[in-house]
């Protein structure tokens, strides 16, 4: 599953823009992941601070 | 709770505020919602903006401007540099803004023009009637809120949802986003008078690093790398390296990260009852990442067209065609050209970059604009730049 390390996240929203299934939402200062997430990992690659991770 | 107005603007950045202001000035009732409790914070921007173009749209107040620069200096990977003067260097050079103050000032102008500004209010989706948007559902400080409005302007930034809710696919592919990191750095080595750009694939793959001075040896020092060349945390890792090499004694006072759309003009920025402006419409410059001015310009057009469309009683996509036509004519053409440059630029090796900037060393480019410089570059490096020949006219 996709995990967001909220201690690393700087809530920039870049991941939201690349998500192909619209599964991410930036709520002020945190990222919400919905059930639509397909664990494609695209968001993890562009995260400028490495806060996103797909975990088995 | 429910409310009613003519236009809902989602997002209170420069694009949203200009749209709200223009629409309110045209006599519409406007509600601008901003999900953050503060406007202009956190900053996700290097804050550079062209002086001339900004002054065409608003009268700059001294407190918005952190610094004014004389020009831009561009460094090749081998360290050779060229200098361009401020009035020729293009849209991102001139003023370095204080976005936290600037954004709020523009929102205040919208409010003074009659728009209602609602902070800590996040749009959750479009309300639709027979498939046509007729408002926005939102959450305001934890409470549900319905805002009925025949027109919605999506100015909701890189993470835009309004377009996607309305059926416009604004999803960014990895090659269509620059991922960025920036530190506010204090260091004696900061050049207070010039915006600096550092090219090189080891510094910032398919991107560049920058220093945008904010006065008294303080600068936004950052870099952007193309999404397709990034891996988790890469932008921050490279920035730390860059700061260590270029500003070894630097003190970091603030950290900024973000994504910059670099798609070039998207197929459609309108749907029935919906217009997108700024980063939401992917209107940022694909080559430089600059997006403040085009967002403001698009916002003004969208606000004006909103009034006309409502007066004509046609807010369908066809009724909003004037917005589409006007932004494409100006911003769109620029984006398309810039996109071609970017697509070429991202392929260049460090050797190519050294050759290009090196070839200018004997030329007087101080009075040239980008187009003039490109013409000279093409004359000196025809083989390397052959693909761009149609742009050199």
The count of strands of chain A amounts to 4
* Largest beta sheet: strand ordering of chain B: 7-6-15-16-17-14-18
Rg measurement of chain B, Å: 21 Å
- Outline of chain A: globular
What structural class do helix, strand and pairing data of chain A support?
Answer: alpha+beta
Level of helix content of chain B? Answer: 25-40%
Shape of chain B: globular
The pLDDT mean of chain A sits at 97
Report on this structure.
The complex is a heterodimer of chains A (56) and B (393). Chain A is of the alpha+beta class and 56 residues long. Chain A contains two helices and four strands, in the order βαββαβ. A two-stranded antiparallel ribbon of chain A has the order 1-4. In chain A, strands 2-3 form a two-stranded antiparallel sheet. The termini of chain A are close together. The relative contact order of chain A is 0.37. Chain B is of the alpha/beta class and 393 residues long. The mean pLDDT of chain B is 95. In chain B, strand 6 and strand 7 form a beta hairpin. Chains A and B meet through helix 1, strand 2 and helix 2 of A and strand 14, helix 5 and strand 18 of B.
Summarize the structure.
The complex is a heterodimer of chains A (56) and B (393). Chain A is of the alpha+beta class.
List keywords for this structure.
heterodimer, A: 56 residues, alpha+beta, two-stranded antiparallel sheet, 2 helices, 18% helix, 25% strand, globular, B: 393 residues, alpha/beta, seven-stranded mixed sheet, six-stranded mixed sheet, 9 helices, 20 strands, 28% strand
Task: Reconstruct the topology from this structure.
The complex is a heterodimer of chains A (56) and B (393).
Chain A: E1 2-4, H1 14-18, E2 24-27, E3 30-33, H2 42-46, E4 52-54
Antiparallel strand pairs in A: 1-4, 2-3
Chain B: E1 2-4, E2 7-10, H1 14-25, E3 30-33, E4 48-50, H2 51-57, E5 65-68, E6 71-75, E7 81-85, E8 94-97, H3 99-112, E9 116-118, E10 121-129, E11 132-140, E12 143-148, E13 151-154, H4 162-165, E14 177-186, E15 194-198, E16 208-215, E17 218-226, H5 234-246, E18 251-261, E19 270-271, E20 274-276, H6 292-312, H7 321-345, H8 350-359, H9 370-380
Parallel strand pairs in B: 1-12, 2-3, 2-13, 3-9, 6-15, 13-20
Antiparallel strand pairs in B: 4-8, 5-8, 6-7, 10-11, 11-12, 14-17, 14-18, 15-16, 16-17, 19-20
Helix pairs in contact in B: 1-3, 1-6, 6-7
């Amino acid at each position: 599953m996709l995990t967001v390390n909220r201690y690393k996240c700087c809530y920039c929203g870049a991941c939201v823009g690349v998500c192909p299934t619209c599964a991410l939402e930036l709520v002020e200062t945190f990222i919400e992941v919905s059930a639509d997430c397909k664990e494609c990992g695209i968001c993890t690659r562009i995260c400028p601070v490495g806060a996103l991770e797909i975990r088995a | 709770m429910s409310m009613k107005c003519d236009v809902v603007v989602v997002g209170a950045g420069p694009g949203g505020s200009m749209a709200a202001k223009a629409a309110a000035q045209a006599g519409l009732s406007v509600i601008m919602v901003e999900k953050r409790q503060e406007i202009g914070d956190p900053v996700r921007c290097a804050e550079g903006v062209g002086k001339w173009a900004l002054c065409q749209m608003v009268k700059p107040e001294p407190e918005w401007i952190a610094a004014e620069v004389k020009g831009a200096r561009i460094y090749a990977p081998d360290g050779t540099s060229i200098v361009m003067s401020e009035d020729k260097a293009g849209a991102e050079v001139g003023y370095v803004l204080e976005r936290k103050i600037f954004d709020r000032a523009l929102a205040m102008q919208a409010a003074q023009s009659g728009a209602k500004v609602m902070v800590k209010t996040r749009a959750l989706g479009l309300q639709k009637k027979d498939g046509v948007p007729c408002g926005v559902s939102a959450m305001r400080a934890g409470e549900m809120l319905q805002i009925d409005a025949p027109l919605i302007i999506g100015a909701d930034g890189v993470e835009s949802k309004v377009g996607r809710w309305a059926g416009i696919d604004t999803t960014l592919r990895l090659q269509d986003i620059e991922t960025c990191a920036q530190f506010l750095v204090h260091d004696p080595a900061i050049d207070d008078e010039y915006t600096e750009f550092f090219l090189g694939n080891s510094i910032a793959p398919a991107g560049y690093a920058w220093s945008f001075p904010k006065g008294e040896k303080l600068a936004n020092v950052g870099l952007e790398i193309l999404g397709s060349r990034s891996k988790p945390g890469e932008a921050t890792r490279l920035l730390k390296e860059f700061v260590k090499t270029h500003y070894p004694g630097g003190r970091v006072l603030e950290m900024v990260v973000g994504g910059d759309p670099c798609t070039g003009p998207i197929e459609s920025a309108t749907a029935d009852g919906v217009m997108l402006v700024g980063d939401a419409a992917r209107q940022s410059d694909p080559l430089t990442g600059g997006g403040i001015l085009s967002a403001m310009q698009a916002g003004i057009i969208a606000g004006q067209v909103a009034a006309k469309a409502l007066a004509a009683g046609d807010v369908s996509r066809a009724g909003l065609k004037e917005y589409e036509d006007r932004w494409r004519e100006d911003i769109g053409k620029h984006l398309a050209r810039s996109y071609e440059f970017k697509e070429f630029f991202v392929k260049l090796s460090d050797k190519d970059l050294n050759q290009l900037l090196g070839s200018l060393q004997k030329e007087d480019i101080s009075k040239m604009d980008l187009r003039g410089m490109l013409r000279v570059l093409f004359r000196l490096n025809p083989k390397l730049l052959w693909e761009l020949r149609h742009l050199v006219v």
